[in-house]
Amino acid sequence: MDKLYFVVGSQDLYGDECLKQVAADAARMTAFFNEKFKGVCEVVLLPTVVNSETCIQDLRKVSCDDECIGVMTWMHTFSPAKMWIKGLQELRKPLLHLHTQANEKLPYDTIDMDFMNLNQAAHGDREYGFILARMRIPHQVVAGYYEHEDVIDGIRKFIDVARAINFSRHLKVASFGNNMREVAVTDGDRVESQIKYGWECNYFALGDLVDIINKVTEKEIDEKMAEYTSKYTMKTDRISSVREQARYEVALDKFLKDNGIGAFADTFQDLHGLKQLPGLAAQNLMGKGIGFGPEGDYKISAFSAVLMAMSKGRKGVTGFIEDYTYDLTPGKELELASHMLEVPVAFAATKPEIDVLPLGIGGKEDPARLIFDGAEGDGIQVTMVDMGDHFRIICADIELVKQPKPMPKLPVARIMYRHKPNFRIGTAGWCYAGGAHHSVVSTALTREDIALFAKLTGTELITIGDDTTEADLLKLGEC
Fold first, then answer.
1. Which phi and psi angles does 347 have, rounded to 5°?
2. Residue by residue, what is the 3-state secondary structure of 320-375?
3. Average pLDDT, whole number, for the chain?
4. Cβ neighbours of residue 413 under 8 Å, at least 6 residues apart?
5. Residue 224 clears pLDDT 70, i.e. is over it
6. What's the pTM?
7. What is residue 477's predicted lDDT score, i.e. its pLDDT?
8. Count of alpha carbons within 13 angstroms of residue 88, beta-carbon side
9. Predicted confidence band at 317 (pLDDT cuts at 50, 70, 90)?
């Protein structure tokens, strides 16, 4: 179970009775949080910070516990912030500043100096907020009474993002082959990715995987085929081609587990030893949370895995997608986002069908793939690009829509969406910002989730949506 440590600040100026009350209030709040976040994460209370030594001890524990995804801090009383400096310098986990207090309302008839000194988050949290700003520590502030639903929702969103950052810090990515020849936007600095996000992205020869593929047994293929037939409609009688994809998935699953890998990228220019391009195999793996990137796009492979981890437990879908073509009917502009094969099964609005059809690219046998129409609803499209001296995240608001007409001759999964505020501003903004043709689309996450991830990881963020104007496009053209 993931842990969120709770660290409360005070001082010994007001005596032992005050500190006993601080500890009691903090314990009561911790119990409340654990009830609210049951099954999501465990909130663990650490000793009250009353001096620099306590702070160092607490925040070292936060930083060194692999099960800890972040820390939530709150100043119950006035906690002089210089005592927090050395501890904060040791912090290596996401930080939430909870600006709250133990009581919801003031006891107007009985309030005295003791009560006011004990309950002075309005004083202590400002002192603490200053030192976070002074030290330029990325953090999130959630303000309000801790039992109110908007505050609980704010903490829960922080937990989701902190969990994704923790996942990111432990993520390993396999690159089968290098970046697709001559393609720019999918490339990037793998060393800087590991420094900034923790992604260990390493090259593996495809032959390493082919060796495992060749050792897959018929029994293992039969078991995978049983999974396919239980989940999908078998539309083809070319069963041997489907079994080939099952063989690929069994081998990929073994390879990923044996090497502790949570995402992979390949390129159709370097798939020697495979009869087909991995279509159905990749689609089914993405449905289990494995990140994928085509054309050697390690960034979107890792980023899709991270965002799928962030959306875990939420309603909606999240996964990799590729921009393809438009319907430019005036006032009704839509985008068809798909891929030649690997569209995550999570996007399926109908029961997916397995079929084997020609692909027209890659020079391989006809691959088995899942075909379906896409989900509907408001969502976001997110990508990450390497600008040379920094990474940039671009996040655009979109609306996933039902395709206006059937596409009987397009044998791939089909996702369609409308750009916000409109096609011209939405797509122009994406192009001005340098947005890639590979992205992650989600109806589970929001722009606020991505903004928090960008803030806590120190990543530049550009957003596009209903609030984007013509003047904003001029500014984007200069960035």
1. -80, -5
2. EEEEEEEECCCCCCEEEEECCCCCCHHHECCCCEEEECCCCCCCCCCCEEEECEEC
3. 93
4. 283, 338, 339, 343, 345, 347, 348, 352, 369, 370, 371, 372, 373, 374
5. yes
6. 0.94
7. 67
8. 24
9. very high
